[in-house]
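Input chain follows. Return C-alpha cells only.
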Amino acid sequence: MNPKKAMRVVLVDAAARAEPVRRRLDAAGFNFRVSVEDELPAGDDVIALGVGPRSSQVGETALLRLPRLALLSATSAGIDHIDVGAVQARGIPLTYAVDYCTNEVAEHTVALMLSLLRSVTQLNSDVHQGRWKIGLPAPRRVAGTVLGIWGFGRIGQAVARTAIALEMQVIVHARSSYRAAIQALGAEPATWTQLLTTSDVLSIHVPLSPSTRNAIGVEELTSMRADAYLINVSRGGIINESALTASLSEGHLAGVALDVTEIEPLPTDSVLLRTPRLILTPHAAWYSTAAAVRPYEQFADNIIAVLTGNSPRGLQSRSTARL
C-alpha cells in the first residue's frame, strides 16, 4: 500500500481528539485526512479506524464495507464493542489503548471506596438537608478493612498497592498466572467464594466478556455480606442491574458505587437513579486532561507502526480464558 496516497483515518468516538492524531501522522510524513464521525464509515479510502467504547458494534458487516482497512483500534482499554473473531478472520491488526488511564481509574476506585467506607456522600447530603449528625451507614475505619479485587491487571494492581498503603487487607481473585504477582504485592489469592463472602469492599477490574457478563447476579449478591460494599469501574453488564437494585432496595449491601452502567448515558427514568445507597459517576474514572489525549496519540503511533512494518502497541490476541 502506498502511504503517500490520500486516505482517510476515521475516529468513531464521542471523546475523540483528531488533532493529536493529525499532528503525529503529519510529523511522520503521512498525509491522511483525519475525521471524527458519529457512525461507522464505509469506503475503500479508509485506512485506519479508531472506535470508542460507546460506538456501534464493529463486526463482519462493518468490516466488509472497509476493504482497505489496515488497522482497527479500540481507543479504550476494553474491546467488548469489537467482534475479535471477525477482525482476525480478515487478518486486520487490532489494538487497544494500553495503560493510558491506569492511574486515573485506580485513583477513582480508591476515591469511591473511601467515600463509601467513610460515608462521605451520605454525610454531605445530610448536612445540606439540615441534619448535623452521624447517621447510617456510619463511617468505618479503613485500616484493617478487607478489600476484595476481582481481576489483577494494571488497574487491579494499582488499586491493591494503594489499599495496602492504607493498611487494608487485600484479597484477589484472578487467573492463576497472577498468583506470584498477588503475593509479591502483599495481597492474598482468594477463591471466588472467598472473594464474595469475605470482602468488606469488592472492586471489579475485569473486562466485559461472555464469561463475565452478569457474573454478579442474584446468587453472588446474596453471597456477599449484608454490610459489604461493591464497586464497578470496569464495564456495565458485569453486574446484573436488576438484581443489584433489588438487593439494595431490600436492604442487602451497605452501598454500591458504579462508574459504568449497561446503558450509557443513563436514561432519566432509570431505576438506578432512584435506588438507595448507590453512588453514580458518568463513566469518568478514566478521565484526566492527560488521559484524554493519550489514546489518540497511541492510535496514530500504531498507524505509523503498521504502515512501516513495525509491531503496534497493544496488539490484541483473542483469549477465551476466564479471569
